[in-house]
Specification:
Elements (H helix, E strand, L loop, with lengths): L8 E9 L10 E2 L14 E9 L9 E8 L22 E10 L6 E6 L15 E8 L8 E2 L13 E2 L61 E6 L5 E6 L4 E4 L18 E3 L2 E3 L2 E7 L7 E2 L9 E8 L8 E8 L6 E10 L4 E15 L7 E8 L7 E3 L10 E8 L9 E10 L5 E12 L1
Amino acid sequence: MKQKLAKTLKILEFIITLFFALGVNSQLTLSAPPPGVTTAPYTLSYSGKLTDSGGAPITTPQSIRFSIWSDADSDNADYLGTGAINPAAGGFTGWQETHIVTPDSNGLFHVRLGSVSTLPNFTASAHVYLEVDVKPSAAPDTSYEVLDPDGNTSNLSDRFYLDSNAFAINSDTLDNRDAGSGAGDIPILDGAGKLPVINMPGATNADTFILDFDNTVSGPTGSVILQFGNTLAKFLEYDTAASWFNFNDDVNITGNLTTTGTINGVIVNGSTVGPYNQSMVFEPHYSQAVIQPDGTNNKGTLRTEFSDTDGAPGNANYNYYKWTTNQPTLQDNDLVLRIKLPEGFSGFQAVPLEFTYKTQNGSVSDNKLDLFVEDTTGTPVTLTGAAGLVNTAFTTASITFIGAPTFVAGQTITVKIKLSALNTGAAYASTLKLNYIGR
């Protein structure tokens, strides 16, 4: 199947001129692009001269087939039995096109490669050689003959080598990436020097996106700002001097707000609003609580249990301590908590203590609970609503302070819960809540 044009045609002249793109050994000539052109044309000029074996110009219609390959040798496996190029042939890059030309009286012709099939973006590993096949236009494809660069039918150099000039067409792309807004395209700035919305990705797969990656605002002054809208001008700012975040408009939070540390007063129109009512909640087991029998009538059992009174999650569920005894006389045991007041503490609320409890029956002779408090100096605090607590269902007592006890932020108070019962009763201690004012 392999044929060489040298058998029937004599190459008198072969000149290829390619705008921006194609170079074939030493026979290449390049035309300079017109001034101001920023996009390379995707058609390449190709000129040649055909003569017969006697040197006479060929002037009858001819089919000239062009194809690009990664290897220089043309062999029978590169073609089908019909004479067409084998699309599965090794080295074939997939690009080919055919032109029907009628050379002039001197045998000269001219075509534009890429005007039939779009030229590829050239890569050095694949688009290395150009093959040119010629036949009379009316002849079958099996009549194609390869235009051999050197006319030597015995060697393996049957195709024209593409020099670096061929790859100039890639100046229209960068690493075979084109400018545009599609997948894999290179985005470009608009006339205002901004990245158009159409080129902005809708998301990122990165788990972390860093502003100020070069750390130019990492010192004691300056801010890192994320702004929303040019006219809207709403922003989230990290102020490095103050070491906090600023919002320049309202903030709406759906759900809980959990903070680590204190909450400082909010500045509104130059005035500080706050501090705020806050609470510390202790559920059995109470954090850092100890069991402290007083040494008299302390026989009994103290255990922790859970009660679900309505079969569903919610406020009807209780963790609690339960004190029981088999003694016929009242026995007691103490739970002692040492509670450090927060650094932002500035005082207690009107109801400083709330205590949830229950007893087996309503008789203080059978069971009861009593609370005691010492301030940060260790002085006992006079309480109201804290003595002889009884109720057959879980209830919450509101306990207040009388007088002027001393409470200092960052220092510790003592809360003691005394559970008392005899064999016909039981005492239950559940949630303890300290309500304070703080930042």
